[in-house]
Amino acid sequence: TELADLLLAVIALDTDDFHRGTGRDLHASKAIWRWSSFCGNDEDRDDVMDRLDKELGIAKKDLRHLDVRDLLRRDWKGDIIPAPNASAPALHLGIASIPVSMRNQITRVGNHTPAAWFETEKAWTKEIYADVSLALTSYREGGVGDETIPSDSDGDDDDNDDGDSKKGPKRREIALVVQDGRRLTRDTANSLFEAIKSEIEAAPELNVTAWTIDLGGQRRAIWNQSDAKASRKVVRPIVERAVEGWYGQPVYRQLLGDM
Length: 259
Description:
Elements lengths: L1 H13 L8 H11 L11 H17 L6 H7 L1 E6 L9 E8 L3 H5 L7 H15 L3 E9 L29 E9 L7 H17 L5 E3 L9 E6 L6 H16 L3 H8 L1
Parallel strand pairs: 2-3
Antiparallel strand pairs: 1-2, 3-4, 4-6, 5-6
Helix pairs in contact: 1-2, 1-3, 4-6, 7-8
């Protein structure tokens, strides 16, 4: 029963109460329904799915209680890139998507400095043995994920709600870290960092501006993005292009070909 309830909740949230998704999602919800604790109660399936979508949607956006480590873990997508030849190292590269601004995240760590944020990030990536990590932020200026919004707001952070006077323009940032001492030597980490950094800064689809304050260490960078529409789907191919250029061969296409 509990498993059926959880599966229905996941389907409701992932499909936005069937406003997106496929017929397979609807079919699955019907098949699971009779095993759930909701079946036989006063609410029908459509009402339950609508309620679950709304309740979980609100909970999903309430990130105020999460620390930086949790924010990094919340939506992390990482890959192990096998070494393309005997002289090159394998890599663990991952990207975290975080709907909270860097300045808000920085207030959640240690002495409220970028250096403290990067130390928290370093501790998390050490746990998972990641070599290259990026954190992509997405938020509305002065809205949820950036600063405290007025108490009469419903807290909804719908990207399409551009008319909400309590929210400023959409913003995105990129934080990049390349660590040595895991799979990379200091020299290889330096060269890989420069390769990714150069590719990001040269990408017209991102049009980034680098933070110039002290970040507290080597191979660390933060940029503001001018194009607020450039999400992980845009950033990732740019990073992959940099990694392939650094390796000198198309490792990602080889990976896809092996699948």
